[in-house]
Structure formats: C-alpha cells, structure tokens
Write a structure and sequence with these properties.
single chain, 332 residues, alpha/beta, Arc Repressor Mutant, subunit A, D-Maltodextrin-Binding Protein, domain 2, five-stranded mixed beta sheet, 11 helices, 44% helix, disordered N terminus, disordered C terminus, LysR_subst-bd, DNA-binding transcriptional LysR family regulator, LysR_HTH_N, transcription, sequence-specific DNA binding
Length: 332
C-alpha cells in the first residue's frame, strides 16, 4: 500500500515538473512538426530556426521520458506515442492562437500596423481603393505596402514578414512557399497582348503566337508564373521568340510598351486604371488564365485589422470584376 502511495506521489511530482517546463508553445512546435515533412519545413512554417525545433523536441522527450520520433532512412518518423499526443498538442496550440488574438486586441494603445506585399497588377488596380476604405474605418492603424514579384510575395507571407500577400499563384510543379499559406482566389483574368496604339498588330482582333515571330517581346523574369505559362504556350505552338527584352515587373513591361519598344504579354488588370494612355490590348489566344489570390500565414492567426483589410481587398477585386474587360472578346 505504501508503495502505491509513493508511486502516485512520484507521478504527481513528475506531472507538476512537466507542466512547469512545457507550455503551449512547445506543443505548437510539436504539432507543426507532426504536420510537416521535416524539421526544416516546420521551422519555416513557424518562422523560427531549425535548431529551435530540435531543442523543443529534445525537451519534450526528456520531460515526458518517451521517444516521440525515430530516424528512418534519414527522415524523422513519429512514434505511436507521438501520434497519441498529437490531438492534445493541437488543442494546446489552438488555445495559444486564441490567447495571441486576445493579446493583440488588448494592446489598443500602441501603434498597430498591417503589412501587405503585392505585385504590380493588384497593386495598381485593387489595393488603392481597399486601403482607402481601410484607413477610413481604421484611422489609427498604419499600412505598410511592399512591391514584390510573385515568388517573393509568397516567401514573405510564409516567413511571417508580412500579414497579407496579393499575387498570382505559382505555376504547377514549381517550388514555392504556397503550401505554407492559406489562399483565396479574388480575381480571374485572361492574359492579353499589350501594344502601343501605333503598333501594326493593333489591326488584329486577336494576337496569336505566330504573330509574335519577328517582333520584340518584353518578357517578365523567368521565374514569374506568367512567364512560365507563356513559355509553355509558345513551345507548344512551335514558336521561338529570339528578340526579347526583360523587365523585372509588369509595370516595367507597360512602361516600355508605352514607348513603343515592343509587345508585352500581361495581366489586363494592370491597365484598368488607364495609367498608360498609349497602351492598348488585344486578346491573346490560346487562352492563358491568370488568377490573383490573397495569401496569409497558415500558422499565425490574422489580427482583426489584417482580417478587415483582407475583406476590403476581396471586395475591391469583386468590384473590379464588374467592369467591362479590356479588349473585345474573341473566339478560341
């Protein structure tokens, strides 16, 4: 009987010791590791170092006295104990998210900031009206806007460097940070040919790959989702475009088209405000569909302010879709 009493006391003391050393942040890291393909991905999703993930794992195994992972073929494999612990760990992680939300809401006296990264088309066509509405409803909240290419936008969201990202999804089979983000499509457009109003191809109702032979094409960087789709389309049509100028953004493409330097293949959203008066568009066939999406972290909860701005961005994109498209519809 005395042995059982002592055993219960030992277990009770161990539980107290563990509860003092482990907290919900440790369980959040553990749950993220369980849902990731390894420590590197877990660290990226959490915005911490790989060493911090490893340290947390060692602490949890030491304090529980149970092996949570084994190494098999160079990869971490969860044990049966880890799988049993996962539902409770996720519950603890969720409570931590709720607590963080409350903490953000309590600090009303400090200067709050929402950081947004976007590439050129939504930056020009969607974000100005969304930010204007946001400042009217949240006059005390700062907005920081970053202009980045699509891959950098996704990377910034995944690394928790920004609250919101607005850009194209990556092309299929390309490495990106998209799996670490929540995403929602806010606009669907068809790629167009951007031409100076005096360019000979303006006479055509539709521009096709063979029309680009011998022309100077102003292209986006190779890693751009639009460039990847355009290259695949031209290759399938058996068309090679040797005369190419590269611009880092679609704004740069349109600036060069404005000076009649060449032809651009872009998202028509960029031209919806008329900032390039000498640039006209023609439908490009075969169709190349372009989506614009809003991204935010799948790990860190959105602040109420960021959530409000995201709503305004979606509403601005919806209003833009109600406008007449640039260029006349054309058959395939």
């Amino acid at each position: 009987m005395a042995f059982l009493v002592n055993l219960r006391l030992t277990i009770s003391h161990l539980a107290v010791a563990v509860s003092r050393l482990l907290n919900s942040r440790h369980f959040q890291i553990f749950a993220t590791l369980m849902r990731s393909r390894g420590m590197s991905e877990a660290a990226l999703r959490l915005g911490i170092s790989k060493a911090a993930v490893s340290k947390t794992l060692r602490l949890m195994e030491r304090e529980t006295g149970v092996a949570l992972f084994t190494l098999a073929h160079g990869r971490l494999e969860p044990t049966a104990a880890a799988r049993r612990l996962l539902p409770r760990a996720e519950q603890a992680a969720k409570h931590l998210e709720w607590a963080l939300d409350e903490a953000y809401a309590l600090d009303q006296g400090s200067v709050r900031t929402v950081i947004v990264a976007a590439h050129a088309p939504p930056l020009i066509a969607i974000l100005p009206s969304a930010i204007q509405r946001f400042k009217e409803s949240h006059p005390d909240v700062n907005v920081h806007l970053r202009v980045e290419g699509p891959p950098k936008v996704l990377e910034s969201v995944a690394h928790h460097e920004v609250d919101l990202g607005v850009t194209n999804p990556p092309a299929p089979n390309t490495a990106s940070s998209v799996d670490l983000c929540e995403r929602h499509t806010i606009s669907e457009d068809l790629l167009v040919a951007a031409l100076h109003r005096r360019h000979p191809l303006v006479a055509k109702s539709v521009v096709r790959p063979e029309d680009l032979v011998g022309a100077t094409v102003i292209a986006l960087p190779d890693e751009s989702p639009t460039s990847i789709l355009v290259r695949a389309t031209l290759q399938e049509a058996g068309v090679s475009i040797p005369k190419t100028i590269f611009a880092s953004t679609s704004m740069g493409v349109c600036a060069l088209v404005q000076q009649d330097v060449g032809i651009g293949l872009i998202n028509p959203m960029l031209l919806s405000t008329g900032i390039f008066p000498d640039v006209v568009t023609r439908p490009f066939r075969p169709r190349i569909e372009l989506w614009t999406e809003i991204y935010y972290s799948s790990i860190r909860p959105l602040s109420p302010e960021a959530r409000a701005l995201a709503t305004y961005i979606e509403e601005a994109a919806s209003a833009l879709r109600g406008h007449a498209p640039l260029g006349k519809p054309a058959p395939d």
